[in-house]
Here is the input.
Amino acid sequence: MIARTRAHWGAAAGLGALFLALVLACALRPGAASADAAAGGEARRANPHLGERDDAFMDRQAKATLDLVDEVLTACPPALEEPIERRLALYLLDNVFHDVFASERAPVVEYFQSAMARTVENIERTKVRKGAVVWKLWNHAFVVRTKSVTLGFDVIQRCGMGDMAISDELLERLVSECDVLFVSHE
Here is the structure.
C-alpha cells in the first residue's frame, strides 16, 4: 500500500509539475492581438473585469489545460480502478469549467463542442452485449445503454453554463440514439 501510495503521489507530482510548466508557458508567451485590437477597436474580453492582456492569458491557460486534460483522458480511459492521472485531469477540467466566465472563452466552448461531438459519435458506435455503458455528458445529463434499451437523463440543449449549448444537429443525433428520455428540468 505504501509503495502504491508513493507511486500515486509521484504521478501526481509529475502532473503537477507539467501543469505548472504549462501555466508558466502561457504566462511567458506573448498574447496574439485580436483582429479587433489590430483594427484599432476594443478586443472582446470574456471577463470584463480583467484587462485585455490578463483575459488573453486566461484564454491561453484554459487552452493549455484543456489540451493536457484531453491528452490524459485519452491515455487513461475510464476504469473500475481510476488512475490518479485521470482523476487529476477531471479536477483540472472542473477548474476550467467552473470559471464563471468559462462559457465566454473560445477555447472552453471549442473543447466542449469537440468533446460532445466525440461522445455522440461514441454513443452511435457502441453496441452493448452484456451489462450497461454509461456516458456522463454534463452537469446532470447522462446516457445509459444496455443490450436492449438506451436511456437518456436530462439530455437538454443547454449544459448549465451560461449560454453554452450543444448544436441542434448534435442534440438531434443524441436524442435519436435514446429509446426513452427522462427530463427533470430545462
User: Anything to note?
Assistant: Strands lie at 132-138, 141-146, 150-153, 180-182. The first helix runs from residue 2 to 28. Confidence is low (pLDDT under 50) at residues 1-9, 17-41. The radius of gyration is 19 Å.
